[in-house]
Amino acid sequence: MERTFVADTLQKIGETVTLMGWVDNVRDMGKFGFIDLRDKTGKIQCFVGSKDDIQKVTVESVVEITGLVKARPEKMVNAKVATGTIELETQSLTLLNRAEALPIPVAGDGYDINEESRLKYRYLDLRRERLSKVLRTRSALVREFREYLYKDGFTEVETPILTASTKEGSRDFVVPSRMNPGKFYALPQSPQQYKQLLMTAGVDRYFQIARCIRDENLRADRGFEHTQLDVEMSFVNQEEIMTEIENLIKTSIQKMGGKLKDQVFPRVTYAESMEKYGADKFDLRTEEEKAEGVLAFAWVVSFPFFKKVDKEDAAEVADGKSGWTFTHNPFSSPIPEHIDWHLKGENVEQIVTAQYDLVCNGFEVGGGSIRAHNPEVLRSTYKIMGYTDEMIEKGIGHMLEAFKYGTPPHGGIGLGIDRLVMLLCGEASLKETIAFPMSYTGRTAVMNGPSELDPNFLKELGLEVIKKN
Amino acid sequence: MERTFVADTLQKIGETVTLMGWVDNVRDMGKFGFIDLRDKTGKIQCFVGSKDDIQKVTVESVVEITGLVKARPEKMVNAKVATGTIELETQSLTLLNRAEALPIPVAGDGYDINEESRLKYRYLDLRRERLSKVLRTRSALVREFREYLYKDGFTEVETPILTASTKEGSRDFVVPSRMNPGKFYALPQSPQQYKQLLMTAGVDRYFQIARCIRDENLRADRGFEHTQLDVEMSFVNQEEIMTEIENLIKTSIQKMGGKLKDQVFPRVTYAESMEKYGADKFDLRTEEEKAEGVLAFAWVVSFPFFKKVDKEDAAEVADGKSGWTFTHNPFSSPIPEHIDWHLKGENVEQIVTAQYDLVCNGFEVGGGSIRAHNPEVLRSTYKIMGYTDEMIEKGIGHMLEAFKYGTPPHGGIGLGIDRLVMLLCGEASLKETIAFPMSYTGRTAVMNGPSELDPNFLKELGLEVIKKN
């Protein structure tokens, strides 16, 4: 018999339907009993007349129940439940998968369960209403973003996962090549260079829901992977791309039922932000707006292009000899008024980058810039950071070459999907928005990773594990 | 001034517009000249009255041209070009990025250029009309697939890139963990286990445009990465999921303008296919249908679950002691009629798996199955393949455990996006459908990967490269 979803039973009073789902609750009354059956659309009370049926089911078992949808007598109506006006009179019950006692509860919000258990049994954790709603919200938000961009002439393009190291400021994860023992691919920290090359290729308007993978120190709410809505546009200036992204965000968030504090996102310079808030991100909401669940977006602009390098950063970024490194993105352009300084390497501390960060409720939710499409501007960025010609050629020679063959002015942004979903759902951690997040100790959810490799496999990769003394 | 796309100029006769794009062609007539300007929507002839302007541009330079859209006199109309009835009379021309002489031509289909050059200069290769159309077709096809599934109640869920080894029949790429020196993550060969766990989690209908990464021997037309439309559904039988997928394909392909040979996809058993075509994939088209560009989809069903292991496969798959390995997917269920044999390990060579492969024009374009959601059925699969209890626990213990806590009957499929785009575009190689494919020798496009690592970086990973003698 065809399956009916719980939410549709309200329209089927007097009909016989077949429901499939989980046993949310069982009440054994002796000779009969009640089951609350749950599917992704809701819950419904099922009267079960068979003692055997009631005794064979356990909480969280999977069942198929065929029965008659009946209106409840008025005094039995439960106004707290969407299907509280009806009940299913069970005619037959099939136990599709019997559940043993669960290691973690799936009722409640689950915040009080320790991370290790929640991630080991993530497939149970995700059954709770809160998280199942987060997954659906995430899917729906990404759908809105995509549809907006498709309609605006954007082309979605996938870029490689196995790529080359691009030194974007974090450490790369690397992947040994069996075909080239001793050599390594890198996983993408972002599709930055590929998306710029797509502009050189004439794609004009690109987007991708892109996985970014960075070997950063883990924090309580962050794993090694995050997802960004990655956008790049040709023939735009800073104003045009900020308008495009602001409209994208406003349209999509409002279609999702999100409330915005401002229909025009305030713009704050980096200097103002540091002076007023002591940071480059801030929360513009009043206490009342916080309680209302309002989203307060704002742009931060006019960042310095360069900063003095600390010892720690120097090791990671350039050779550190010049004392300068980029604050945001080495592929950015200075603002038009500062290109002369930039090309001459003058007034380095005063050069402003054509960067725009999007903040919301005190978090950074996106960042982008107009890029240097003139190879001499890009070369100057690296010169200022102390790179020799040889280092520049080795590091970004392919980009400098591409920019010699007709590259349009372009710019883009990366918007943090995890962060936006977190704010939209009123969650406090990025991990609540990810189906299978990594633990704080770098363990994969459910499965046993990372793990040791077979020594023969390792040998084929041309590698040996260093033995500890 | 606001940008106008070339395709929109036809509606703007008598108006002054600003176009931005590439110089497709220059004809220097001495005191004046002509430029064909190209953007992603088309090409238009621009009359340039300034000798200086004509002399400063080169082919493939990026320009901004403001001018008056004029109808051409009837005898000057070029019927071969979409904009052949008009011409732009240039008022001002700005050179946005001057192109040096290109290392490869961007006109023509590019098939005759060697792979190395095409991939090194992929950002130029993609400018050719053929490939720019393939990228747009790919984006549009994926959009159709997504919209069909969203409307049918599917939730899109992302699964991890850094995961644990799952032994799906190919070799894993591995990623050393800096946090756990000497230990490794694996990149996903497919989201097989995660999507099944999402069914345990109650997601009910899942999809993802998923990257699958396998360390397989490279072929001329295949790199290490491919993209699949990954689908999984709960509470379905084989017939229901095949119908769902058939409708998805038919609707999406026809919306894209693709022509189908059959409105009902023929179903062929594995045995019939082997007897008639000598293979488990086949091309049902007549010569006439081939010329028409028809897509001939068909299902192949009733595959044997197990096959005798060769020496080579044994090393990769199980311990090989039993002599049996799976033909398609160890997580599949046998067909209902053969579950008894399966549980008892009897008549192994006769057990049929609930597997369905989708073929088109002689290629496999997808494969899926109803899964074993009963832990004893899954355990039997591994027992038949000669796994000990300890090996089973280590390999799939987490799946067996998940299936004890209420897992619905479920099944799914993976459809090869690269292959479908290839067939839809009439291309002969998967690489023609990928923005930045890998070379036959495992080199990344444009960028220099794989490459050697800094020894200090390697040390932090707890690794050493074995020196060659």
Detailed description of the structure:
Two copies of one chain form a homodimer. Chain A has 469 residues and is α+β, with helices and mostly antiparallel strands. Chain A folds into two domains: 6-97, OB fold (Dihydrolipoamide Acetyltransferase, E2P), CATH 2.40.50.140; 120-433, Bira Bifunctional Protein, Domain 2 (BirA Bifunctional Protein, domain 2, 2-Layer Sandwich). The first copy, chain A, has 14 helices and 20 strands. Chain A has helices at residues 51-56, 115-120, 122-125, 129-151, 192-200, 238-255, 270-277, 287-292, 311-316, 339-344, 375-384, 389-402, 417-424, 455-460, and strands spanning 16-28, 33-39, 42-48, 62-71, 86-97, 155-156, 174-176, 184-186, 205-213, 225-234, 259-260, 267-269, 294-295, 297-304, 306-308, 324-326, 352-360, 363-370, 410-416, 463-465. In chain A, the strands form five sheets. An eight-stranded mixed beta sheet of chain A has the order 6-9-10-19-18-17-14-12, sandwiched between helices. In chain A, strands 1-2-3-5-4 form a five-stranded mixed β-barrel. In chain A, strands 7-8 form a two-stranded antiparallel ribbon. In chain A, strand 2 and strand 3 (42-48) form a beta hairpin. In chain A, helix 4 crosses helix 13. The first copy, chain A, is elongated, with a radius of gyration of 28 Å.
